Amino acid sequence: MSSPVCKTRVVALVVASCVAASPHAQDWKPTRNIEITVSSGAGGAADREARELQRHMQMRPGMPSITVNNRPGGGGAIAWSSLNQHQGDAHWIATMNVALLTNHIVGASPLRYQDLTPLAILMREYVAVWTRAESPIKSAKELIARLKANPSSVSFGLSPALGNQNHIVLGMLAKAAGIDPKALKIVVYAGGAGPTAALGGHVDAWVGTLGGAIPLAHAGKVNVMGVSAEKRQPGKAVALPTFREQGIDAVYAAYRGIIGPGGLSAAQRAYWDTTFAQVVHSPGWKNTTLEHAWEPDYKNSADTRKYLDAAYAELRKILVELGVTR
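Given the sequence above, the corresponding structure tokens read:
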């Protein structure tokens, strides 16, 4: 009969061999260039996210080179479809936002978030609605009054597609005015030309990221009528009013994160969990979030997947009201 000591040694050897054989137990780290695919053109919100992430990641010891590749079009569908051509390769990652879900809900893309590998939510970003400085519409109350009188009297510009966070906030403003969101006059711009068109008077109001509105407001070029935050944001955004403080129920924050191609292993996800957590908890990143008026809200890969599961159902309900579902 074997002794208890021998049995213990046998069990230990079996456990050790199983751990060694398990692919999840093997560490993974990048061995060549990392590419961040951006789901919009240069200068937009996703581009700012990618280039700030590139800068902070590149500071980390042992990090290989990182390149940023803008692949605009299809409301992000072109970028995410190209990403998924690199199945199982964690050297390829991409920016992720609400459009990844809404594209599928509205029928604009067959690609589902389940086809990819959610890696992180890095932050949230609020929406700002502004008019150019010369516009007669100076406040959210004036805007609501015009919409009540004639829903199509104000043209709104947004990017890059219907159904995204900008469109959702417009729907909230329509509700506040007591009108059908489908009655709004909306012009969709595919690239970064939208704000320029709004500044030139081609549309009456622009609906976009708070981070994009801040420098225009500080330069005196625009009137920010409202921000979709519960309270005024710190830093350079502190002077910009919220819709809520004006008695308008329009509070919405869009997540921004990172996604990988389908088929990433547990070890690859664990590497990105560690890397992104270290970046977002660094003092430098905290300064970056303040500069761009981002709301800190980090979620690792597992929590991001759970969040997307819940967000998909919620967004479907919202988009049915906006009248843009299949």
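The radius of gyration is 23 Å. Try to locate this feature in the token string yourself.
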